[in-house]
Every structure is written in C-alpha cells, then in structure tokens.
Design a protein that fits this description.
Bound molecules: nicotinamide-adenine-dinucleotide
Shape: globular
Pfam families: Aldedh
Enzyme class: oxidoreductase
Oligomer: single chain
Number of helices: 17
GO biological process, one term: thymine catabolic process
Largest sheet: 7 strands, mixed
Organism: Anaeramoeba flamelloides
InterPro entries: Ald_DH/histidinol_DH, Ald_DH_C, Ald_DH_CS_CYS, Ald_DH_N, Aldehyde_DH_dom, MeMal-semiAld_DH
Length: about 525
C-alpha cells in the first residue's frame, strides 16, 4: 500500500474564506454555481431544463450546474459575434492589441485565484494549476505583438509597372470546443490570437470544467472588450453540432478525444469551415543506458504522474533500452513516495482524477492488463485519502511486461498509470513509436549526441524532447502533434496559429499614372 500524508483540511477551508476579486470565484465560495452563457457582453442564465452537474473531484460536493443551452440561445451568440465583427475588425491592430495588454495584467493580478479555482474544479495540484495559468498567459503575451505578427508580403515591379502585396485578414467568427484537462490554458491557446487578429469569438468550454471559461469572460469584460467580441455557450453534443453547422462561424479549434475530433473535423469541413483538431495521444519516453540515471528517473515520475496523468503530453509509455531496464526497481521505489492528496494540500504530488467515470475506466484498464498477462508492479486502485475518502483518487500505478496488443497499450488511459516496455536497441524503440497511431510527443533520455540526433531525425512524431520530459513548445512556436493526434492544416498558437485565424488577400496593382494618357489601345489581357 502506498504511503500517504494526512490531509491539511485547515488550509483548505482557509482558502475558501479568502476574499477573491473575480465574481465567479466569490460565487463559487458560497456553494454550487449556476453556470451562465456569456452572450453579447452579458452573463445570461439559460432557460433550459437540461443541466449537467459538476462535482469537486476530491469531495464530490456539487460545485456547479452547466446548461445545455436552447437553440435560440445558441443562435443569439452566433448573431452577436457576427454583428460585432465589422466594428471589431475596423479597429486598428494596435487598438486590439491594447486589450491583450490589459488581459495580461488582469491574469497576473488574479493568477492565484484562478489557480485555486482550477484545483477545486479539476483536481490538479496547486503548483500544476499555477503552471497552467502561466502557460495560458504566455499566449496572451504573444498576442500583444500582433501588429508585427500580421505583416503580409509585398513585391515591387512584379511585372511591368505592377506591384503585388498581400494582407492577413481576419475571417469573421471563430470558435473553440475545449477539453476538461486544461480548462484555462486550452481556451487561452486560441482566444487571444483569434480576437487580436480581428475575429470575434464563441467559446464552448468543457462541460466537466466550465468555470475557467467564465473567468476568461470576466477578465475580458474587465479589460473593456466591446460586447459581442467574445461569447460563451456551454453544453455538450448539441452545442458542438450547432457550432459545426452555424453559417456565421468560420473557424473551429477543437482540443479533445479522437472520437469527438473526428466527428467535428468531418462535420465542420463539410460546412466549409477551417478546422484544427488537437486530439488524443500515447506518448513514449525512451531511456537509453547512457542517460543520467537520476535525471531520467525524476523525469519519468514527473511526466507520467504529473496532473494525475491527465495530460495529452504525458509520456505514459516508458521504453527502457538495454540495461536501463535495471533502473525499474528504483523507479518503483521512488514512485511509492509520491504523495497523493487534495490538490491544495502543501506537498501533494498527485491529486484526484477529474471524474468518477474516468477513474473507473482507468481501474478497468489496470485490471485488463493483469488479465492479459502484464505484470502490475504497483496498483493504486484501492487508495483512500484521509479526509477525502470520497475523492476520485487513483494512486500511481506501474504496469511492466506490456506488449503492444494489450488494452493498456492500445488505449489512452489518461490517468497516473505507467506502462513499461523493454527493448534491446534504439532502432527497436523508434520502430515501436513509429508504429503507434498517435504522434503527439515523445522524449529520449541520453548523453549521446548521435543517439539523440538519430532519434529526432527518424522519429515520426511532431514534438520531440531530448532530455526533456514534457516537450511542449512555448507560445512563439506551434503545438505540432502529428498523425492520429492532429487533424487540420495549421497547428495551434505560434505562427501556425496566426495563419489559422487569418486569410491571405493578395492585391495586384497596375500603376495608375498610365491612365493619364488617353492613348490606350484595346488588347485582350495576355497571360505571360
Ligand atoms: P472529449 O473529446 O471528451 O471532450 C472535448 C470536447 O468535445 C468537449 O467540449 C465535449 O463537450 C465535446 N465532445 C465530447 N464528446 C463529443 C461528441 N460525441 N460529439 C460532439 N462533441 C463532443 O475530451 P476530454 O475528455 O475533455 O479531453 C481529454 C482528451 O483530450 C484526451 O484524449 C487528450 O489526449 C485530449 N487532449 C489533447 C490535447 C492536444 O493538444 N493534443 C490537449 C488536451 C487534451
């Protein structure tokens, strides 16, 4: 059985009695929040009779109720965003960027409160939640530089007395359909760039973690952003299908599972929308025998068990090459020291999983591994956390002797579960990874430049870490998952993100001074 620290309930209640500056946080302190849509610059309570309950993952206390909006409510969000577009687009890019400077300041002022709310809603630890807020903030910082990001191209004398230049123009109404696991950061991947480029926006947060979207609306409202530029519609499948079909909406940014992403990509592109889908993952971490042992083991633990494994970039499959497999015993011993508790409790390494359903699914996969012949070295299925006995906790779990046909390898577990595979050579490791349908990220730990160079060159995966446990690029680069982990033509944020939210318009001009002469002969234009 795993060792646990006792919970510090005192600190938890202390946090709840603090004064928060954002209304949604203040409201959530008093009890369950009725989540509202944000349409045309106002929070509007839905008239629906279909509601989804959201529970605190550590206590099962009801924290919010999410509406499945009525069709008329969805329609009014689309119309508001459409109506605001000409006015918003006509502002200078510097004026739009100024709202982002304000947003950056507001996020910084409220970052601790946002992080605490994330812990309560999602279950992640406070340091993890702070990291999420910071990663979101970085994209807003990038959006502040939009004036120089929106440069087009020019060429003088492209033909005789003709010039050509191109602009990056906004498309109209953009939208996002978001996952539960980074409820603040994922909307921040898209909203700042889309709106600063001149689009208006409709956000559909995850129905499992809806409060962070609400926070973003409050912050944008405080920044003074004009009504209609940013809207939120909540709900699940019906709202998603509305977004795929609404003629006003020109772009969809989706982050989530393959099941939903495949559907959204097909339906959205059929309706001639630009769609980008970041989807599921099964990431591998290759440990070479020449790697720094201590750094490798720490990185394995952080990558697999951080955020309770609910990260699309967690390297949940550890591939030991050759003699590095002997380090597994030490990995198991260190894993036993991981502290599982409610996310606010200081010293916690691993919080609860976000929903009971996800917990039950992960436990089922662990059971299947045993039945299919793997060796479960550590099983966190029966863990109980003192003071939070109702929480969705899964202790860190390690499954060895995994083969590629097993359910625990075939499926994305999305929990604190490590699967271990042993191979003899780097070539075998590369082949294993390239045969996996997903290609979000991967890492290698080695001191050999030739091994790392070979790996980065031959690996068929879009994001590669070399001695880096979670290879997520910062905001100025793009999040470049490949193959089964991505659908679309432009990746999220960075230069690709800006291209996604703009369309090139190319102007070809004939110099006007020729028109001053009346001596112009008629000629059919000739292609040259
Ligand atoms: P999810 O697919 O269940 O939900 C994501 C969004 O899709 C939600 O807003 C939800 O309302 C909607 N949705 C869900 N099922 C739908 C359906 N049948 N039809 C229409 N819409 C539907 O994903 P999740 O569980 O919230 O997030 C976890 C998944 O997201 C994992 O697979 C993870 O790997 C992936 N993820 C990927 C990235 C990435 O950048 N590649 C980042 C974060 C999460």
């Amino acid at each position: 059985m795993l060792s646990l620290k006792t919970s510090l309930k005192g600190r938890y209640s202390q946090l709840l009695s603090r004064n928060f500056t954002l209304p949604i946080i203040e409201e959530s302190k008093k009890g369950a929040v009725t989540i509202k849509n944000y349409i045309d610059g106002k929070f509007v309570e839905s008239k629906t009779n279909r509601w989804i309950n959201v529970y605190n993952p550590a206590t099962q206390k009801l924290i919010s109720r999410v509406p499945e909006p009525l069709p008329s409510e969805l329609r009014s969000a689309a119309e508001s965003a459409q109506k605001a577009f000409p006015m918003w687009r006509s502002l200078s890019v510097s004026q739009r960027a100024r709202y982002m400077f304000k947003l950056v300041r507001l996020i910084n002022e409220n970052k601790e409160d946002i992080a605490e709310l994330l812990v309560r809603e999602h279950g992640k630890t406070l340091p993890d939640a702070r990291g999420e807020v910071f990663r979101g903030l970085e994209v807003a910082e990038l959006a502040c530089s939009m004036p120089s990001q929106l440069f087009g191209q020019t060429l003088e004398n492209v033909s005789s007395e003709m010039d050509t230049y191109s602009y990056k123009q906004p498309l109209g109404v953009s939208s996002a359909i978001m996952p539960f696991n980074f409820p603040f950061m994922c909307p921040m991947w898209v909203v700042p760039l889309a709106i600063t480029a001149g689009n208006t926006f409709i956000l559909k947060p995850s129905e499992r973690c809806p409060l962070s979207g609400q926070i973003l609306a409050e912050l944008l409202e405080q920044s003074g952003i004009p009504k209609g530029v940013f809207n939120i519609v909540h709900g699940s499948v019906d709202t998603v299908n509305f977004i795929c079909d609404a003629p006003e909406i020109k772009t969809i940014s989706f982050v989530g599972s393959n099941q939903a992403g495949d559907h959204i990509y097909a339906r959205g592109t059929k309706n001639n929308k630009k769609v980008q889908c970041n989807m599921g993952a099964k990431n591998h971490m290759v440990i070479m025998p020449d790697a720094n042992k201590k750094r490798s083991i720490n990185s394995i633990l952080g990558s697999v068990f951080g955020a309770a494994g609910q990260r699309c970039m967690a390297n949940s499959v550890v591939v030991f090459v050759g003699d590095s497999y002997e380090w597994l015993d030490e990995v198991v011993e260190k894993t036993k020291k991981i502290v599982v508790n409610e996310g606010h409790v200081p010293g916690t390494d691993l919080g609860p999983m976000t929903t009971k359903k996800a917990l039950d699914r992960a436990k089922r996969i662990i059971k299947s591994a045993r039945n299919e012949g793997a060796k479960v070295l550590l099983d966190g299925s029966d863990i109980k956390v003192k003071g939070f006995e109702e929480g969705n906790f899964l202790g860190p779990t390690i499954i060895d002797k995994v083969t590629t046909n097993m359910t625990c390898y075939q499926e994305e577990i999305f929990g604190p579960v490590m699967t271990v595979i042993h191979v003899e050579t780097l070539d075998e490791a590369i082949k294993l990874i390239n045969n996996n349908m997903y290609a979000n990220g991967t890492s290698i730990f080695t001191r050999s430049n030739s091994a790392s160079r070979k790996f980065q060159y031959e690996i068929d995966v879009g994001q590669v870490g070399i001695n880096v446990p979670i290879p997520v690029p910062l905001a100025m680069f793009s999040f470049s998952g490949w193959r089964g982990s991505f659908k679309g033509d432009h990746h999220f944020y960075g230069q690709n993100g800006i291209e996604f939210f703009t369309e090139l318009k190319t102007i070809i001009t004939k110099l006007a001074w020729q028109d001053e002469s009346d001596n112009i002969d008629f000629n059919f234009p000739q292609l040259k």
